[in-house]
Write a structure and sequence with these properties.
Helix content is 42%, strand content 18%. It is of the alpha/beta class. The chain has 2 domains: 4-91 and 190-305, D-Maltodextrin-Binding Protein, domain 2 (3-Layer(aba) Sandwich), CATH 3.40.190.10; 94-186, Periplasmic binding protein-like II (D-Maltodextrin-Binding Protein, domain 2, 3-Layer(aba) Sandwich), CATH 3.40.190.
Length: 306
């Protein structure tokens, strides 16, 4: 029987390493699926094309799942039934700024870059700014796109700061940009990355979902094994040439830390989910959110892991 082809769309970043590993080792095919992986320029493109069926699985911020289910996404979508079926990262979001922006006070009157103003990690940035005494009248936000585009905008001087994930955090630090703050400084837990699909597609293709999970978990377990660090680093560098060897160690340190990187067992961290829901309740347009089951269904993960 031929492998079921899954069109996968992810944000670019080091957290995709278990996917790169599983592809290289043939672990997806061993579990009955073939993966065509694309990276998204922004969250709106990803959500629109997941909803249309062009892509079947998305590696995305957990908040994106919540946002589109609540009708608060960057673009209006009808009858979405997105859900997260597996975790990916706790993720450390670094607030990088140009070198002369050394304090929150220095941000006044400046423009910051986001993927979208009301999805993804935007609310984490709003909370960082609020906790440090700034109001929305003190700064402006610009919709720029996924992390590579935002990093390029800050590097070019178009905007003074943005949130990044690895490897872009280490790249920015190495090039003399400032790390003003990190999400790990302000949140005890934060559900960053997840894998999502539509409930309809998953129900119609349960074996494909479970095959993807099995392949990913093999790649994840191998990546987290300290004995494989050098080979894992080589695979990451081969798939992300923008990572230079001098920052590879820092990227891997962050990626392999349970506080800032990949989540063992691809678990969804309920304390981190609570943080996401609290932020969206505070900064979103729909009021209080408190029911994780509206956005999460772990039946496929549990069927694989027992």
């Amino acid at each position: 029987m031929s492998a079921k082809t899954i069109e996968l769309i992810c944000f670019p970043g080091a957290p995709n390493l278990p996917i790169f590993v599983a592809q290289k080792k043939g672990w997806f095919e061993k579990n009955g699926v073939s993966i065509n992986m694309s990276t998204t320029p922004n969250s709106a493109f990803q959500a629109e094309n997941l909803a249309s069926g062009k892509f079947q699985i998305a590696g995305t911020a957990f908040d994106n799942v919540v946002a589109y289910q609540e009708g608060q996404g960057a673009v209006p979508l009808k009858d979405t039934d997105f859900f997260a079926f597996m975790g990916a990262t706790q993720v450390e979001l670094a607030f990088i700024t140009q070198a002369d922006v050394k304090t929150y006070e220095d941000l006044k009157g400046k423009t910051l870059a986001l993927d979208a103003l009301s999805t993804g990690f935007a609310f984490a940035l709003y909370e960082m700014l609020a906790r440090n005494g700034l109001t929305k009248s003190d700064y402006a936000m610009a919709t720029v796109g996924a992390t590579p585009a935002r990093w390029e905008a800050v590097k070019a001087g178009t905007h003074v700061g943005t949130l990044t994930i690895e490897p872009f955090t280490s790249i920015a630090r190495n090039q003399g940009f400032n790390i003003l703050d990190t999400s790990t400084n302000i949140f005890p837990a934060y559900q960053g990355g997840s894998f999502a699909a539509s409930r309809k597609w998953a129900a119609e293709n349960p074996d494909a979902v479970k095959g993807f999970i099995r392949g990913y978990l093999e790649g994840l377990e191998w990546t987290l094994d300290p004995a494989n660090r050098q080979e894992a680093t080589d695979i990451l560098l081969a798939n992300m040439p923008e990572i230079k060897p001098q920052v590879a160690g820092a990227v891997m340190n962050s990626l392999l830390s349970p506080r800032s990187g990949l989540t063992p067992g691809a678990a969804i961290l309920m304390d981190g989910v609570k943080t996401v829901l609290e932020l969206r309740s505070k900064y979103g347009s729909g009021g209080a959110l408190s029911n994780p089951e509206k956005y999460i269904d772990l039946q496929y993960l549990k069927a694989v892991t027992g």
